[in-house]
Amino acid sequence: MQGFQPPQQPGAALHWPVAAPEPLAKRDPRLWLALAAHLHPPEPLVLRSAKGSISLISASGQRLSAPELIFRWQQQPLRQPLELRRQVWGPFASYESAQAASERWQRLGVSTKIAHPADWEVWAQANGPLPDTRPGDPPLRLWQQKLGQRSVLVVRGPAPGFSTPQTLVLDAPARIEAPGGLRWQGGVYAGPFRLQSDATDRWTLVEQVPLERYLLGVVPFEIGAGAPVAALQAQAVLARTWAVRNQQRFEVDGYHLCADTQCQVYGDPRAANASVAKAIAATAGQVLSWQGKPIHAVYHATNGGVAAAFEEGWGGGPLPYLKPALDASLGLQKQFPLPLQSGALERWLAPGSSSPGAQAYGADHPRYRWSRLIEAKHLEVLERGPSGRVLVLRIEGPKGVELLRLDAIRRRLKILPSTLFVVQPAGPGRWQLEGGGFGHGAGLSQAGAIDLAARGWSLQRILEHYFPGASLRPLGSL
Questions:
Q1: Taking the domains of the chain in order of start, what are their residue ranges?
Q2: Is 80 exceeded by the pLDDT of residue 1?
Q3: What is the layout of strands, in order, in the sheet containing 430-436?
Q4: Contact between residue 288 and residue 472 where contact means Cβ atoms under 8 Å apart
Q5: How buried is 314 (Cβ within 10 angstroms: 0-12 exposed, 13-18 middle, 19+ buried)?
Q6: Which residue in 62, 73, 277, 287 has its CB near the most CB atoms, within 10 A?
Q7: What pTM does this model have?
Q8: Tally of CB atoms within 10 A around 407
Q9: Which helix (H) or strand (E) holds 373?
Q10: Per-residue pLDDT tens for 251-303?
């Protein structure tokens, strides 16, 4: 079988050729969502129906149907080798940081791609100008490979019109239908689905899910199905807005979004109870907008009592609707004006119910206040943002001195729940970090929204509190 052959290009290609997903339609938008990415040998892929059979339809129209399909791997030679060659900048701690770096590189006239083969990276042609790097930036490297063969999926099962099982070799995207639902990682998903290759010539199981059904699998896993009504509604609006705004996130791999913490956590939609379903229905089609476009609708578990500006988390230009602010009453805001300076920051982060910070919104979250012990020869905060968060951290260890910036701090020091902390010496080579919050701190605090909803705040008031100046609009009007 000759199979799919990549188009021949002059010189080396940047990555394995993949068709970009179609942009989300304003009416009946459907996300292409990766339930499982970077599938590769040797483990077989097993797909099971929750009820009845699942059907596989190949690119050539061949069909197999069975309650269970087992896909195994086979190496298939290419008619002509494909050379891949690119400059790689990374790894970055997040898509947002990779995007900021990509924009810096593009200002030199370079066409870039953001990819996530294992970590976030920026790709560009190997023969173009290189970006100016600064201390704390990840390295640049030349990557190249010549492909003479590729991994394809082989599946065997009953086929219409045949008395014996048939074998299909999948070397191009294939469609999967599961009328009774597809069992995957303990959940059941309605689909339809696709099996397709990605930019690294690995394979992905993609669900094509309507946006409103997608929210049923996001809201309960992100904020909890037991949250008050207004908090559930706020989470539904933000999850919808975030998905629309970030639909280009995995464009290089041929789909829109992933299902894990690199996007929004998406699980079995059956986890949505009646309250979640009502909150989604009450806000159906509504997104937060700024100047006629969906906002960057970021959220996190708890901000430790003070919200961060966008540029405190990821760099890049400021966003007018993501401003640093004390997440507390007007009286406390007057007592602790921003920027939080030394002294005031320590008082705000002090643990205990009698501290001023204990009066902020969402203060009952288990990681509202925390302590961590770090071992290093030297640890020093070089720069803070207006919310008090650490922007640049100097750490000296056995391998020398590192300058960590923004979200690279938490990527390197994984035990830190946030970058809102103060540092105190705790003995030779030991440092005590007293901090607050869990997550990047920008946008909506889920703990804060739950608290405010319990106090009787409406959806509109909560959104205005965390995204000042943004407005609710129907997606179809943007």
A1: 30-133+145-211, 223-303+443-477
A2: no
A3: 369-375, 430-436, 421-425
A4: yes
A5: buried
A6: 287
A7: 0.94
A8: 19
A9: strand 369-375
A10: 999 999 999 999 999 999 999 999 999 999 999 999 999 999 999 999 999 99
